[in-house]
Amino acid sequence: MAYIQIFDLTPENTADYGVCGYKDTKKHLELRRKIDWIKEYYPKGLRIKALLSKKDGYQGMLEFIPGKYAHRPVDAEGYMFIHCIFVGFKKEFKGKGYASSLIDECIKEAKKSNMYGVAVVTRKGPFMAKKDIFVKKGFVLVDKAEPDFQLLVLKFSHKARDPKFKDLKRNLEKYKEGLFILRSVQCPYTEKNVNAILKSAQDRFDLKANLIDLTDVTAVQNSPCAFGSFCIIYNGEIISHHPISNTRFENIMKKKNQ
Fold first, then answer.
1. Distance CA 208, CA 198 (A)
2. Dihedral angle, C-alpha 204, 208, 213, 217, nearest 10 °
3. Domains of the chain
4. Before 147, cis peptide (omega within 30)?
5. Phi, psi torsion values for 200, nearest 5 degrees
6. Could you list the pLDDT tens digit for every one of the 258 residues in the chain?
């Protein structure tokens, strides 16, 4: 085995390596649900390329899927769509070109599958890759969504139509009154802290939150938030675009209720 290698996470081996830092199927409901999700979408073209260090084990991954099944509110059919990319639980693995190599693997798969190109949603901050590494690969901006999401694409043919975000504002209209938490098991972090937030909403703010599990790709693609797999909405306003701690939730709600 090389010092570090790229390999495929599959429905059969994910439990052996874990994903997103979750390694114990008995301990982590998040991992069990993620494995079930992988089993559902792997036959539809989902692929997870992982980095394995001989010395330090699992050190990163890139997850992608045909755009038809993208778990983001995008119209990207015909493109390969990147959900997420991460490299380096240990700092020594950052800045070594491993993320670039993972993107190259996705590009190769997209070409092999006769896709129009590769698309990805980026954002500054947690849970989303920044755009820089994709721009270096030749990706260009084709659409934006509030507050600072960007949809980038690497097209193999200039004749291909651009992917785009779906109508997020229209999708938000159904959540005008009350507190809503939307989540999909595509992102394992959507499990952590939710029960505490539900309890806190009831006990501290006298709010019965509506927990909505987005159980299929259609539901996720109709999310009002560009992250797709998680958001918290309060009286028609998205107050978190990604998973947060209960403390962060309480601080947000205190400001809203001042």
1. 7
2. -100
3. 4-165 (3.40.630.30), 168-256 (3.40.30.10)
4. yes
5. -65, -40
6. 347 788 899 999 988 888 877 787 888 888 999 999 999 999 999 999 988 877 766 678 999 999 999 999 999 999 999 999 988 666 666 667 788 999 999 999 999 999 999 999 999 877 788 899 999 999 999 999 999 999 999 999 989 999 999 999 999 999 999 999 999 999 998 998 999 999 999 999 999 999 999 999 999 999 999 999 999 999 999 999 999 999 999 999 999 887
